[in-house]
Structures are given as C-alpha cells and as structure tokens.
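Q: Hi! First time doing this. I have a protein sequence and I read that you can turn it into a structure. Is that right? Here it is:
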Amino acid sequence: MRERVAVLVIVDVLSFSTAVDIAVNQGAAILPFPSGDRAAAQAAAEKAQAQLAAPRQAGGGQFSLSPRTLAALPPDTRLMLPSPNGSRISLAGGNTQVMAGCLRNAKAVAKHARLLAGDGDVAVVPAGERWPDGSLRPAIEDWLGAGAILDSLHMPMSSEARLARDAFRTAIPSLHDLVQQSISGRELIDEGYCEDVALALDLGCSSAAPVLRDGAYRNDVIHPA
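A: Yes, that's right. Below is the predicted 3D structure, encoded as structure tokens:
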C-alpha cells in the first residue's frame, strides 16, 4: 500500500499518536523505535543524540509513552519513544510521507495530509493492538480516530474508509463512553492511566501536524484551531 499513496497517516490513539501530538505541541521531536530490546533502543537513542523514554510503568516523573508525562517536555527535546504499534508502523512507511494522527489533531492532520499529498492518495492506518499470543486485536479507538481524520479529509474514499468515517460520525455523542469502555480504554484506566485516556479523547483540541522526517516526528505546521 505504501507504494501506492503519497501520505500515510498512522493512528494509534492509546497511546503513541496522542503522545506524539502532545510532544510536538511542546516543540519537541519524537523518534519512533519498535518496542522490545531495551539495550538496542538505548544504543539507537545515543546514536541519534536523543533521550530514551522510560517504560510507561517507570513513574517518577520520567518521560514515557504515557501522554500525561509529555505535557512538560522541554522544547527542542529529542525523545526516542519505543512503541509496539505506532512506532513500528511509522518506521514501515519507507519513502512515503508519514504522519501521526489521533482524535486530538484529526482536523489539522487531515488538512496537512491533503497539502502534502497534492494529487496523490492518502492512506489512514488504524494501528490496532495485539493479544498476548501476538494475534491481531482490533482497537475501536484507532478505528474511530481514523474515522475522525477521514471525516475532515474531504477526498474520494474506499468503502472501508467510508465505514470508518460513518462510524466516527455515529459515535460522536457517546465517544468518551465507547473509548473508556473499550478493551484498550479499560486496560489503561485499570492500570491507573485514566488521565491518558482523557487526554486522548480531547477531540479537536490540537492544531499540530506531526510529520516524520529524518527519523523524527516534528510539528510541520500549526493551523489555527
């Protein structure tokens, strides 16, 4: 698919794309790295002259995949952010322009994706999750996040894209409840990350357009809210 489109928008609402949005709004750069080997991540961070994010469970005010920890990220920080879904998919984009979209920045990302794509196509990719055995677990928060971006994209759409857009439109009145009661939402809330879920659900609050260039997401353009 990446060879057939001009822009890929990666949607990982809980929590990679939300974390990227908050970080780039602070003027920071986020370097995606697939989760797994902590030693490899540390070596990659040092090579890129970046700080390696702590595991989400680390606590102690350290920067991590938990979006709430990134609200005070200093400007010009380079933070390598391991993530099993959003980071991994971001790095699979090849030479295609890659953006990170979520519910917070859906309108801004849609507007900028169209600008970057020109006459080309835009693919909006819900990241999804995985069960403990590694099999794919659909994530409704990513499906709805993709639908929110598609709703503002105003381009011809595939049947799958229209369904995601229509699902988002239908879900708007109960969006908070649906995501909070989803499998991913319940997992985070039960683990004490209810603030992260609330941040992810702040629909349309951000005008950031995170674009992956030279291995890092940065805010490409700030649109009026």
